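Researcher: Going back to the complex we discussed earlier. I've cleaned up the inputs and rechecked each line, so this should be the final set. Can you rerun the prediction on the complete assembly and write out the structure?
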Amino acid sequence: MDTALTTGPAPEFEVAAWLNTPGPLTLAALRGKVVALYAFQMLCPGCVSHALPQAKAMEALFGRHELAVLGLHSVFEHHAAMGPQALAAFVHEYRIGFPVAIDQPDPDGPVPRTMARYRLRGTPTLMLFDREGRLRHSLFGHQHDMLVGSLMGRLLA
Amino acid sequence: MDTALTTGPAPEFEVAAWLNTPGPLTLAALRGKVVALYAFQMLCPGCVSHALPQAKAMEALFGRHELAVLGLHSVFEHHAAMGPQALAAFVHEYRIGFPVAIDQPDPDGPVPRTMARYRLRGTPTLMLFDREGRLRHSLFGHQHDMLVGSLMGRLLA
Amino acid sequence: MDTALTTGPAPEFEVAAWLNTPGPLTLAALRGKVVALYAFQMLCPGCVSHALPQAKAMEALFGRHELAVLGLHSVFEHHAAMGPQALAAFVHEYRIGFPVAIDQPDPDGPVPRTMARYRLRGTPTLMLFDREGRLRHSLFGHQHDMLVGSLMGRLLA
Amino acid sequence: MDTALTTGPAPEFEVAAWLNTPGPLTLAALRGKVVALYAFQMLCPGCVSHALPQAKAMEALFGRHELAVLGLHSVFEHHAAMGPQALAAFVHEYRIGFPVAIDQPDPDGPVPRTMARYRLRGTPTLMLFDREGRLRHSLFGHQHDMLVGSLMGRLLA
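Model: Rerun complete. Updated structure for the full complex:
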């Protein structure tokens, strides 16, 4: 459930477009902050009912000073139903205020590029990066708020 | 919150297409059953978190012998994000087993035909029809399960 | 799960004392109203988390004009911990506003008199009486709000 | 909401009796572990619905190797309803498996001794002690699981 990808700085995200941010974000530019990245799909029930509310709670509890909460829309199924325009409507209706990246589609297959690069098993997946940009946790599925809080506490300590 | 539309049999739905049913359904053909029709939009948060689970609970509790639970996808905003293909993906991912009608779009405006005909204020709206096909309740917004149960109990009595 | 006790008027409750009412209540005096009686124990977790909130919701939804919501404290275990003084503290802390009867203890055994007379299997049990004072439903355990609502709807119809 | 009591090791608890432990526990003997102490009352609704389930979740998530979860029954009202025998029944019915201390009553007033010594404002209060036995957090009222997790994460780091 929790596998570190690498020991050095994690690879950058491959992103087709960003929502809720004036310009593209990179792990390099976020160095110094803890980064919580939620890979999700807008039509994934567990993402909608648990992961995205958890992401909102995280931002509300820890603020934006030491932590960056990001979404990564990693569509690997129902591509026609979850394009950029649909995502924009979803982000608006669900009042998502944090930056959301659209994972770069791969013309050769259903799995988008960042999802493949990070070997994600599905959505939701929560990835936690430390202040040095290293991937410290990659958690697939529904995670208890207290567990996520404890990992955040250790990274923010 | 609860306004009867008419005293006689309610007007038929205007439907572009149906999901989860071998053929079109009509109020006339459902005469003899109580009909619970949930007007919803797939990107409406209250529909997803409350109305559709309530519709599933209704079908599980009362069965299909005396009751027909139906969905009506009445899209009046974000039309490009909630087309038929997106709805099919949504119905699949959310394990919706009851028939779902796609409200007939109106080429002259954003509000689809059945929504306009029934003067719905938004989504979710629960419409309850008695065994004679008369609209008895039209309830906009989040409704307590116990209230809905009591209305069902009276109609099924 | 649902067994009618009798076909005629139900036997009266045997009650040691009442809380939240100026005088004793009887089924005979409540004739004309639907009566929802929740048998509970103050240290029964399912009673506290589900049955009593449901009783409050019932009173809030249907009011006191056609319906009487009552509690029946039927202690059959941990008697020393659930005496009248403890119950009064519980009723105060949990903001229970409806009348609560203390089931008459039986000097010869742990099961109090009304519980025995009505052959209750445990707590919580919801008993629903129609306007003629007949016991129509006796439901042991956690009941879905929608189911309870539908039974209420039929009895109030 | 969060006030450290002292900078040095915290004062020991004054305890009339312990449940769920073969012998008395002391902060001194728990040195080396993080200690999470939940002050509660068995008839306090917020304690029952939120704090005690949170204490159970904490033990389930973090185990007993590095963390000691304890209850402190600090009765300051309804004393007759919350005596040791009642508490034992409560602990049994609510399946509380961690050690629970009964705060030493004060013959001169309603507030028990540990509650007074730690200046608790009411129940529930969560007190977190670090591995050196220092009180690091004293949190009155309902606390978000993620917040509690983050404090635990920092103390366990």
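Model: Worth noting: Chain D has five helices and six strands.
Researcher: Good, that matches what I expected from the previous run.
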